[in-house]
Amino acid sequence: MLRMASSFPEEVLEHVFSFIYDDKDRNAISMVCKSWYEIERWCRRRIFVGNCYAVSPPMVIRRFPEVRSVELKGKPHFADFNLVPEGWGGYVYPWIAAMATAYPWLEEIRLKRMVVTDEALELIAKSFKNFKVLVLSSCEGFSTDGLAAIAANCRNLKELDLRESEVDDLSGHWLSHFPDSYTSLVSLNISCLGSEVSFSALERLVGRCPNLRTLRLNRAVPLDRLANILCRAPQLVELGTGTYSAELQPDVFSSLAGAFSGCKELRSLSGFWDAVPGYLPAIYPICPSLTSLNLSYATIRSTDLTKLVSQCQSLQRLWVLDYIEDIGLEALAAFCKDLRELRVFPSEPFAQEPNVSLTEQGLVSVSEGCPKLHSVLYFCRQMTNDALATIARNRPNMTRFRLCIIEPRAPDYITLQPLDDGFGAIVEHCKDLQRLSMAGLLTDRVFEHIGNHAKKLEMLSVAFAGDSDLGLHHVLSGCENLRKLEIRDCPFGDKALLVNAAKLETMRSLWMSSCSVSFGACKLLGQKIPRLNVEVMDERGPPGSRPESCPVEKLYIYRTVAGPRFDMPGFVWTMDEDSALRLS
Amino acid sequence: MEGGLGLLGVSGGAGGGSSGASTNESTVSKVEVVDAEASSYPIEAELELGLGLSIGGGGGSGGKGKASAWGECGRILTAKDFPSLVSQPHRGHNNNTNATASACVAVSGTKRAAEPVSHEGGSPTSVSQVVGWPPIRAYRMNSLVNQAKAPRSEEDNSVNEKDKSKDSSKKKICNGNKANATGNEKGHLGFVKVNMDGVPIGRKVDLNAHASYETLAQTLEEMFFRSTSTISSMGGEKQQSANPSKLLDGKSEFVLTYEDKEGDWMLVGDVPWGMFLSSVKRLRIMRTSEANGLAPRFQERNERQRSKPV
């Protein structure tokens, strides 16, 4: 066997490996033997680093010298909800600087929840001659000046996607930095930007890029400009409108409707800020072929929403506000048999009383009517164990189930019992469940169910749940495939964590905030397990200034081969052998 | 969240859990009682007792219909308690007790953010001011809020709003792109950055959680002044004797200022709240000595109620 492996010329093996794209498969190949490891590492072209602090740029570069595509993720997921203070970290600049010299032929950079500065963008713009794809998802720290540098210098740019990033929006002028000779744009997403870009520059850009298939405009693009843009890009596959609101005028309407009709390839729509019902019929002609519809910024009500979704028989993904109500979801269940993903967001998350008639029933209907539904994010104000159990039995193919009941610790509103059994049914029936977020009143029992049944679970989000350390222990000891665990406001302390310390090295990360993990336990973990970074965040000051038994505010533990990081702000401390000495 | 505090630190199962016993025995022991009861679904009165001690307010007496249904299920502490607390007359006491309990138990941003919710301005958004709850991305939250201000009927009677945005977009074309009348397009209206002179770490504050300058100032005072005092004092005196924080009346070492859409720095409090909301880009707690030349002083308006700083 060994002889056979070594008798294959490297080129042959390399050629074989080139058909393997998946990271896990690539990793498996590299572990077969040393020569395969060597061959594989020279021909790996794409790397994914789920936690930018798990490994250092030099280490990556040393192992994989010929990378063309890099994906990095920075801050923990709970940063989305402002639980991670400013300045925590996740800076991309060191990566860009290292790659600028090591990967001159880098083509793609995809970042999520990282701090990206204008300097970083400028460095990208001038270092990578064949740069093609820049995706900045939920990033921050840069301004439109950095975008101007990208636009001006990246001659081969195909994709610029700023989804949900926080940009210091100085002006819309940056778009005009794309030279007239630039024609390779395939995908542009500027939906998060506030400023107006020059419409004529936008139209000219769209008009001269024949391969443009994705265009997500920002809110500042008024409705009466949309038709012109669409007419210049009838080949569009994905469109995000700007503001979808204007006074009803027949000529505006008819040119819009005509423009939409001309886009025969359009499959995905989004945007629709401030949508007015009067202009919705303009998209009716293309509804039957739509596969993805994001109406989560559209303030239209259930009657109009129902009418709309009823025409979208090919719909696979729907994001919508709770204005759709149970009645609209019933229509969805009746007409959209191909639905795979549903997200329902709250229109008034802080209102004390429900403002719409959206209940657990809506989700039950969809679970009954849509056999392919496997991914759910659902905000509501009431839930029952029965409903959850019904959903679970209806949809054993569920892979992502995220429920949020607006009120923390809300019980089953009929029986007033905890929702343990409902979620228990979910994990029991949905054997392929990969991601779960729970809500409502939950005791340790639900964690027991999860530990016993959720064997494929990779990511779990928990808030205001559980009674004791036993809850956490069930999860850590039972969920074999757990990679990410994020917990807030739960009564979990030291015991479960210390008993399951070894488990933490098999996971990407653990976040715990407003729990009861003591500083002493954090120190212990940091000391005993060298390949974990145990970071304590505490804005009250150094944890060493309080007793060891004092709980820490926030705890972020992640495995790493790069050792402790040194770019932390003043309110973050890493627990390791050295720091433990320093702090005590 | 309060639920993460003293109660849970001493719950039976949580071994290493801090009891913080060394600093305040009485708080902890009362808390223990509550917790033991909590697991057997106490009646509301008992919960009230426990809640009263650890957070200084009659939490159970929230006065909301929903609250009583909850109490039967052994609800511990939720954000729902906070609105009712804030409206309690003995708010000062509340804060002091917080300090005591909080010296050694997990204090999170949740509590601080939750407290200043005020009903003074009749804010409709006061139910759940826990940080990061409900778990909606700030990006989406800001978009939502901006839309909430526009009328939402099926007919196009939102003509006024549309005209406004038309006008504002015309204005934008003339003025370049920074200014916009309603602040909608910026998408930042909810959370704005706050920096304080001398403090390296900036914070963010959710302007939508406030209906008046007072509550905003209280929140900021808690964010920036409470933390420095807690480092030095373990016994939990929250009052910072060196810098009594009265950000709005110009009597302290610091004043609260904001940068508006035109890039000018103004004193907070000079314009009506709504106008402030639509023009603020970010906040800065500035040293009074550096605040010369800003908009006219605020001192004249001392008939405005001041809440005690924490």
TrEMBL record, chain A:
The UniProt keyword set, sorted, is: Auxin signaling pathway, Developmental protein, Nucleus, Ubl conjugation pathway
Q: Main site of residence?
A: nucleus
Could you tell me which Gene3D superfamilies the record lists for this protein?
Answer: 1.20.1280.50, Ribonuclease Inhibitor (3.80.10.10)
One Pfam family here = Transp_inhibit
Q: InterPro entries attached here?
A: COI1_F-box, F-box_dom, Leu-rich_rpt, Leu-rich_rpt_Cys-con_subtyp, LRR_dom_sf, Transp_inhibit
Q: From what superkingdom does this record's organism come?
A: Eukaryota
Q: In which pathway does it act?
A: Protein modification; protein ubiquitination
Q: Which PANTHER family match?
A: F-BOX/TPR REPEAT PROTEIN POF3, PROTEIN TRANSPORT INHIBITOR RESPONSE 1
List the protein's name. F-box domain-containing protein
Q: Which organism is it from?
A: Hevea brasiliensis (Para rubber tree)
Automatic annotation (TrEMBL), chain B:
Could you tell me the superkingdom of the organism this chain comes from? Eukaryota
Stated name of the protein: Auxin-responsive protein
The record's Gene3D superfamilies line, in alphabetical order, gives:
Phosphatidylinositol 3-kinase Catalytic Subunit, Chain A, domain 1 (3.10.20.90)
Q: Look up keyword Transcription regulation and say if it applies.
A: yes
Q: Which family does it belong to?
A: Belongs to the Aux/IAA family.
What organism does the record attribute this protein to? Answer: Hevea brasiliensis
Q: What is its main location?
A: nucleus
In what residue span(s) does the PB1 domain sit? 189-290
Subunit text: Homodimers and heterodimers.
Query: Where do the segments described as Disordered lie?
Result: 147-185
Kindly list the places in or outside the cell where this protein is found, as annotated in its UniProt entry.
Answer: Nucleus
